[in-house]
Amino acid sequence: MDTLIFGGLLATWLLLYRRRGRTAVLVGWWITLAAVALLLSQHITSSLGLGLSY
């Protein structure tokens, strides 16, 4: 998951560096955020399925 976060930040930085529009940068952030939220929810529910508690 750390690699996904780093990759999303890198892609967004590249959009900023290449002077893309604000919309492209925001879309990059939202895609990264959605992917991280999906993976995090899957990670938490799979750990709870193993009987782990938080």
Keywords:
54 residues, mainly alpha, transmembrane, 2 helices, transmembrane helix
Secondary-structure class: mainly alpha
What is the arithmetic mean of pLDDT?
77
Number of strands: 0
- Distinct helical segment count: 2
Q: Please state the CA-atom Rg, rounded to the nearest Å.
A: 15 Å
Low-pLDDT parts are: none
What is the overall shape?
A: elongated
| Proportion of beta-strand residues | under 5%
Distance between the termini: 19 Å
Order of helices and strands: HH
Number of domains: 1
Tell me roughly what share of residues is in helical segments. over 70%
Note the main sheet: none
Pfam families: DUF5993
Keywords: Membrane, Transmembrane, Transmembrane helix
Organism: Streptomyces luteolus
Protein name: DUF5993 family protein
Describe this entry's structure for a reader.
The chain has 54 residues and is mainly α. It has one domain (2-49). The protein contains 2 helices and no strands. Helix 1 runs antiparallel to helix 2. The longest helix is centred in the middle third of the chain and has 28 residues, at 22-49. The radius of gyration is 15 Å and the shape is elongated. It comes from Streptomyces luteolus. InterPro entries: DUF5993. Keywords: Membrane, Transmembrane, Transmembrane helix. The chain crosses the membrane at residues 31-52.
